[in-house]
């Protein structure tokens, strides 16, 4: 069973090759010192990449969109850090009107692809590498079986939840794929909105720390807590009904 993990290597290699081929098909630009296409690592990288992709967008909108979507799904599927930077990039390229729903859809699809390969790897493989963390999440899922969707939304909205771990463990915890997709799509909406919105002012950013300022963290935490209000109300009403009957 553990040998299955090695089958991820050709899948990852194929996806990487696809991204490489896309970079080779980039439209020609009449500009000097054009930087190479790459994943951004810092604010300067991000701003230069945004400028470059805007030029590509003017030349070929379809190419730029396919390239962006492919890069986004690559990071989400293989749980590579940096989705926040791509959300900012989405705002810089497409604006909040297009960038926000695009980020939500790509987040849902990419996380679902991660869910599927995690499901294929099997429980034994994942427990071998993440045993302690899986058992903790398993206990929480059992405690919240009656309000699982609200609990998943809470996890997604809470700013310090490890989304990569949730993506990996949900399939072996018995979370159905449709529920998983909806929890990702809706639960990460606040985070996606705030980061995509930041992309519209990318040029004025001086530090990536501005993406998660204290005020932003508090907003996301408040939204996460709000996701728990409906199940609490429902539970109280149920308790009252049982008591009176």
Automatic annotation (TrEMBL):
Residues 80-200 form the VTT domain. It is a multi-pass membrane protein. The keyword Transmembrane applies. It is found in: Membrane. Residues 1-31 form the signal peptide. The chain crosses the membrane at residues 92-120, 173-194, 214-234. The keyword Signal applies. Keywords: Membrane, Signal, Transmembrane, Transmembrane helix. Belongs to the TMEM41 family. This is VTT domain-containing protein.
């Amino acid at each position: 069973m553990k040998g299955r993990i090695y089958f991820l290597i050709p899948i990852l290699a194929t996806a990487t090759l696809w991204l490489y081929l896309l970079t080779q098909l980039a439209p020609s630009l009449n500009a000097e010192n054009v930087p190479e296409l790459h994943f951004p690592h810092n604010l300067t990288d991000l701003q230069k990449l945004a400028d470059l992709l805007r030029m590509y967008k003017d030349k070929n909108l379809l190419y730029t969109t396919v390239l962006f979507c492919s890069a986004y799904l690559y990071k989400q599927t293989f749980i590579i850090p940096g989705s926040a930077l791509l959300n900012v990039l989405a705002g810089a390229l497409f604006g909040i009107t297009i960038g926000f729903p695009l980020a939500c859809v790509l987040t849902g699809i990419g996380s679902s692809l991660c869910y599927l390969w995690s499901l294929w790897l099997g429980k034994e493989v994942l427990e071998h590498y993440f045993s302690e963390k899986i058992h903790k999440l398993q206990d929480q899922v059992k405690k919240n079986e009656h309000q699982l969707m609200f609990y998943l939304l809470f996890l997604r909205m809470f700013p310090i939840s490890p989304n990569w771990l949730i993506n990996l463990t949900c399939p072996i915890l018995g979370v159905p794929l449709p529920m998983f997709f909806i929890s990702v799509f809706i639960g990460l909406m606040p985070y996606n909105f705030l980061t995509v919105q930041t992309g519209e002012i990318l040029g004025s950013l001086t530090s990536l720390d501005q993406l998660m300022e204290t005020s932003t963290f508090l907003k996301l935490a408040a939204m996460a807590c709000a996701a728990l209000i409906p199940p609490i109300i429902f539970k109280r009403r149920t308790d009252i009904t049982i008591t009176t009957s």
